[in-house]
Design brief:
Layout: H1 2-11, E1 37-43, E2 47-51, E3 66-71, E4 96-102, E5 107-113, H2 126-133
Parallel strand pairs: 1-3
Antiparallel strand pairs: 1-2, 4-5
Signal peptide: 1-20
GO cellular component, one term: extracellular space
GO molecular function, one term: serine-type endopeptidase inhibitor activity
Length: 137
């Protein structure tokens, strides 16, 4: 892992990444900010992904493709897809207090569960809800 981190720290300046302004595009010498780009996303801790730009026509005189680095929050982790489901009370008749994760507000909220059916965005405690669904855990 240390080798990958070292490699990234060496590569990032080549892409115009500025540690003083993480996430900002800094043109390389002789390049314009308007040059078509590929995006390099740096995610916690050291994963670099290159996303191809949408199809575009490039003038024949343009020989290089500008690359831009975007830094994603350094302790953000993937959130399970279940956490994006709306609260679902189910189909039975009980009235059980449960917690669901509201991805829009990034908070865990109470709702009433009927005891059967529903979906996986249902927790018995706020602690478990945040442990599973919050992106900054």
């Amino acid at each position: 892992m240390a080798t990958i981190l070292t490699l990234i720290l060496i590569i990032l300046p080549l892409f115009g990444y500025s540690h003083q302004n993480p996430g900002m595009t800094v043109p390389a010498p002789g390049e314009s900010i308007d040059t078509p780009s590929r995006e390099v996303v740096v995610q916690h801790p050291v994963t670099v992904q290159i996303a191809d730009p949408s199809p575009m026509t490039t003038p024949p005189s343009m020989s290089a493709l500008k690359t831009r680095v975007v830094v994603v929050h350094n302790n953000m982790v993937p959130v399970p897809i279940e956490c994006f489901q709306p609260p679902d009370s189910g189909t039975c008749s009980k009235d059980l207090a449960r917690i669901y994760y509201d991805h829009e507000t990034r908070t865990c909220k109470p709702f009433s569960y009927t005891g059967c059916g529903g979906n996986a965005n249902r927790f018995q405690s706020i602690k478990n809800c945040y442990r599973i669904c919050h992106p900054y855990r």
